[in-house]
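HUMAN:
Just now I want nothing more than another pair of eyes on a protein record. I would be glad if you read both lines and explained how they fit together. I have put the entry right below:
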Amino acid sequence: MKLSHRITHLTGGGSDGWDVFYRARRMIAEGQAVTELTIGEHDIRTHPSILAEMDRSARSGHTGYAMVPGTDLLRDTVAARIQLRTGVPTTRNNVLITPGGQAALFAAHMAACEPGDVGLYLDPFYATYPGTIRGAGAVARAVKTRAEDAFQPNARLIAEKADGAASLLINTPNNPTGVVYSRETLNEIANLCRQRDIWLISDEVYDTQVWDGEHISPRVLPGMVDHTLVIGSMSKSHAMTGSRCGWIVGPEEAIQHLINLATHTTYGVPGFIQDAASYALTAGSDLEEEVAAPFRRRRELAIQVLSKQNTVGLIPAQGAMYLMLDVRATGYSGEGFANALLDSHSIAVMPGESFGDAAAGHIRVAMTIDDERFEAALKTVCEFATYLANRSAAE
């Protein structure tokens, strides 16, 4: 039987750039010791107090079907949190609870795009973005950002790609680059979206991990409340990656239709997970800081290590749990460098090419192992890069 074009062309064909990651996992499965600096998984687990609330809720009977839009408690909690953090009036009618941020991204594009519309996204990009857009029936079109601009988007370059566009997907703080978009950048993007009548889909799952600058949700900008769908999640802010609990915040009309979509697809999120999320979101900033603190420390460690050499360049590490490192001075591509590093030192990093053409010649390092091993691994990366650069210069 023939499968649909939509499902067979989600990833666009060819290598997805994740070969280094898969190879490292095979080495680990074979018993080899590999230092993994690849994916964005916390090295701490969900806080015991959150798990206790999850257990209490489940044992008290909240294990049946939950309300598809989300429980009133969690929707109210998310709305209050968004309103407090942004100043934009927000109620439960602006909130849909989803099975994680990924489901929210798919639903948002289903709401924004007709089949055949263009869905814009920025390069470098999180790995699932183009496939998510294609899965919604839209045409995924990348807009490159530039390393020399610290990967800040350029509204003029976006406008050049905007013919036929119904949506633009942005992510700040950004995965993979660690860059936080400036107010100037976001104002220019917002102006473009208003002028072209383009939905702005804002992935803000790293909004509690800002080390330099400020997180600005574009929903706060003039005229953007009705043009913006915000994606949020418990995964990164509260180390609840496996609990699969996220949300979309947007105009009431859009949320009502998205609730209908959820009724026909995911049918909601387990109630005991939602109760744990409500508890976590109201537990105070100390819990969020406890989750974020290791990445804040390791970012400072990285700055210290990298300041003592001049081969590896650091893209401004303003937020999120990643570093984007420029290894072009070695003469290697990001993929070539990552493979050589894995072969010679059993350290696994993600090639920049895994996240699009704009990050060629870079690697992404996840700050997700303990401080001592992280510092040692980063020193080895720099020493290896210097060795390769010197060897290339001598040839």
